Amino acid sequence: MYVAVKGGERAIDNAHAWLAEERRGDTNVAELSLAQIREQMSLAVNRVMAEGSLYDPDLAALAIKQSRGDLIEAIFLIRAYRTTLPRFGYTQAVDTGAMACDRRISATFKDAPGGQVLGPTFDYTHRLLDFKLAADGEVPQAPIAEPRLEATPHITEFLQGEDIIEREPASDVTPGDLTREPMSFPAGRAVRLQSLARGDEGFILGMAYSTQRGYARNHAFVGELRIGKVPVEMEIPELGFAIEIGEVELTECETVNQFKGSKTVPPQFTRGYGLVFGQSERKSIAMALVDRALRWEELGEDNLGAAAQDEEFVLSHCDNIQATGFLEHIKLPHYVDFQSELELVRKLRREAQELADQMAAQEAAE
Question: pLDDT tens, 129-177?
Fold first, then answer.
């Protein structure tokens, strides 16, 4: 039970003022601009957009600045702002096959049709501190590289040609909208993917790692990982056709997983899928692994009791905003609750002491 805290307005105002002062830091140091955060902390910006479910790099940069770099707080700010925006409608499904890829790799085919495009990646860097950055040294100019403008086919299309990987069933059913409809179980795959895309990267990563260590027996290959911009189209009723209204940067991952088959399905490869705003490789791969683990029932596999196979567990705990709210509410006044429990413990201790005294008196009398 919460109780009203009287006389705290001045203390709260002072706390907010102190917070603003701490956020600004030493005024002798130049203040960070939103452009600096957007351009030089782009991976943090991408995470805030992805888990905040709002694609706007400038607003994500503002949220990061306001939250002093606390990304979960920044995600909370973005989600809160998102609820104030009018909804004009739904865009059409983006065609990631038409993505202008800045990065596109496959861990399953060396000579992948369309080629391997390493792009900007930490994969081959030495994890050593670069002290040139501390000295404000200029970064050497990278060779000019244009993203692929032609369509880049998906790797799984070639496996599908041999009929050794499951086919994604076509469906005309409009997927549910997790931001408009409460989660219910069992959840369809479309809703699960929405939840994972909005879920906390660290939590999803931990679940994915557990599948690799044997908790779900989920051996996966990265069939393809691609990063780039895709056009976003929306059908305008007055026009009767779709028009391009912008573009977004996405990271898409398709995993290829072993599958020994079932009574009705021959041995074949299956898929895991991840799609995230911005350059978010770790999140998209982890999402694909967890997606595949959650598909055990529809594929006719055994439930091994792994956490990553438990739909309710994963989807109910992956949202960092819900988790933060429930966690941090215990900082608020719970005086009445605690006093009642304190009185209960004191009563139990008195009763226990009285019983001990009675037993001691009986022993002495005997």
Answer: 888 888 876 666 766 666 556 667 787 777 776 677 877 777 777 888 8
pTM value? 0.86
Q: How far apart are CA 122 and CA 144, in angstroms?
A: 19
What is d(CA 81, CA 98) in angstroms, rounded to the nearest whole number?
A: 31
Q: What are phi and psi of 221, to 5 degrees?
A: -115, 145
Domain ranges of the chain: 9-82, 96-120+143-325, 334-366
d(CA 259, CA 271): 10
How does pLDDT run across 221-258, given as a tens digit for each residue? Answer: 898 999 999 999 998 888 888 888 999 999 999 998 87
Q: What is d(CA 97, CA 4) in angstroms, rounded to the nearest whole number?
A: 56
Q: How far apart are CA 190 and CA 273, in angstroms?
A: 11
Q: Characterise 268 by phi-psi region: left (phi > 0), alpha (psi -120 to 50), beta (else).
A: beta
Reading phi first (left if > 0) and then psi (alpha if -120 to 50, else beta), residue 68 is in left
Three-state secondary-structure class, residue 316: helix
Crossing angle (nearest 10°) for helices 71-82 and 320-328: 110
Contact, 306 vs 294, CB < 8 A?
no
